Amino acid sequence: MVLPFEWLGGEPREMKFGIRFQVVIAGALLMIMLTAAALSQEPSDRLASPESFAAVADTAERSAALFGELGKVLTHPRCVNCHPASDHPRQGDQARLHQPPVERGADGHGLPAMRCSICHQQANFDPARVPGHPEWHLAPREMAWEGKSLGEICAQIKDRERNGGRSLEELVHHIGTDTLVGWAWAPGAGRRPAPGTQKQAGALVEAWVQTGAVCPK
To answer: Could you report the per-residue pLDDT of 76-95, keeping only the tens digit for each?
Structure first.
């Protein structure tokens, strides 16, 4: 009797080849998808390291350049939306007025009848795309960044009367480790995170302070 296949270990050679071929193709497709995802990340979504500015010989220029890189975070919608010029927070990458309509309130946590915590719970609620954090609130009025240039934000962030009373060293900790600030890098479904990572942003702030905390012009 002539068999239709040459049997190897109970399986046809053609079957084994087909399975191997499928595995190779699947692996190649996965690598293509991962590579495309990495390449699709826009430069504006990344943060350069402090070390990448080492070639800038002038310390003041290097300091200003470091803050310019940090500015990708500070001027990003995830930050600016909660640092509005008015008493009304913003939403989305288009900085739409918050819906439903809400106001800052005396303590930044909303009006008595519409506290932030009514909708914004302990963590993001992705099914309804509602962001959340235990301390969800607006930044104080004196810390408004909306509509300001990067140089103006820099001068403001150095001013203890307009930065929450923080020293430059405390700013490093605030931007680099505060969990509410950190929400900007984990904003939940449907939101574009701030560029880079919080650790990278903290490193930029620290390097900026160490080089004199010079503001860009």
So the answer is: 999 999 999 999 999 999 99
Instruction: At 163, list the tokens.
Output: 């930065």
Decide if 95 contacts 158 (C-beta within 8 A). Answer: no
How far is residue 28's CA from residue 140's CA, in Å, rounded to a whole number?
51
Q: How far is CA 128 from the centre of its chain?
A: 20
Stated pTM of the model: 0.79
Structure tokens at 126: 């992705």
Tokens of 44: 């504006």
Residue pair 189/129 in contact by the 8 Å Cβ criterion: yes
52/202 Cα distance (integer angstroms)? 15
For residue 68, name the pLDDT band (cuts at 50, 70, 90): very high
